[in-house]
Amino acid sequence: MELKNMNVSDRKAMLLQALENDEFYLLYQPKLQLRTGKVIGAEALLRWEHPVIGTISPLDFIPFAEETGLIRPIGEWVLRSACKQNKMWQEMGLEPLTMAVNLSASQLFQGDIAEKVENILKEMELAPEYLELEITESMTMDVEFVLPMLRKLKQIGVSISLDDFGTGYSSLYHLKEFPIDTIKIDRSFVRNCTIDAKDATIVKTIIAMAHQLKLEVIAEGVESKDHLIFLQQNLCDEGQGYLFSKPVSATGFAENMRAFEQIFLSEGLSEESSR
Ligand code: C2E
Ligand code: MG
Ligand code: MG
Ligand code: MG
Hints:
Helix content: 40-55%
Strand order of the largest sheet: 1-2-4-5-6-7-8-9
Bound molecules: ligand C2E, magnesium ion
Domain EAL: 8-261
Mean pLDDT: 94
Order of helices and strands: HEEEHHEHHEHEHEHHEHEHH
Organism: Terribacillus aidingensis
Largest sheet: 8 strands, mixed, barrel
Protein name: PAS domain S-box-containing protein/diguanylate cyclase (GGDEF) domain-containing protein
Structural class: alpha/beta
Radius of gyration: 19 Å
Shape: globular
């Protein structure tokens, strides 16, 4: 049984059932400040645990959620759950984090996304500065529609990051015109940045450009110590990847949150340890 071999109405029924039966859950991956190893944020990543098929990757079901229109309720569930979790961490006494949530194209195009986000923040009593929305370049193509939408979101006080940067279209135009706070360097450039001169140049150039534009920059797919050292040397602000942690449960996240700073210190990776 595979989603892609089913017809649209069966897929829709399955996704609806998943919502009703609580088959979705979130995992969280830490975002670290690369100077110190301090965890400053989390990205919420959606998972679907189907009783028969098992775990289904978002890459395999988000397109069908879009196709069937169910991305709206699913996306809202993600936003609400991620904000709720962030609030719970704050109430547990964890240092406040920014929670990043991936938006899909049709969520942005639904027109009332800003109102939705505002309502969820109110409902969860979460300050807007603790929510970040990740969008991709391909979603920003329809400038006349998307630009006012992003401005409305910014007015609420949430931040916006441009995910998978470098893999979409006309990225430089978007950097200039869109109210973006952070660039996420796509994993495909980070992967070989220590062994391929072209990737190295691309990563360095994105970091330098981000800083000159007064944007933050984060690298995704940080998998090795070599990656980390390269990114630190080139003054990348933040990093996210398997070197630090895979996406984990909320409990696992909270338990490990403070460990990275110690590891950075003891392994001489922290700015502090070089003093
Ligand atoms: P993304 O937003 O670019 O998320 C990063 C993906 O890279 C995640 O895959 C994460 O598990 C993976 N990753 C993180 N660090 C590493 C690493 O060091 N090496 C490698 N090889 N991979 C790493 P995941 O969780 O399978 O999600 C895939 C994509 O699905 C996401 O890419 C995002 O576009 C989409 N997605 C996930 N959750 C949601 C959601 O709630 N809503 C929407 N609309 N899309 C989502
Ligand atoms: Mg993302
Ligand atoms: Mg990404
Ligand atoms: Mg990606």
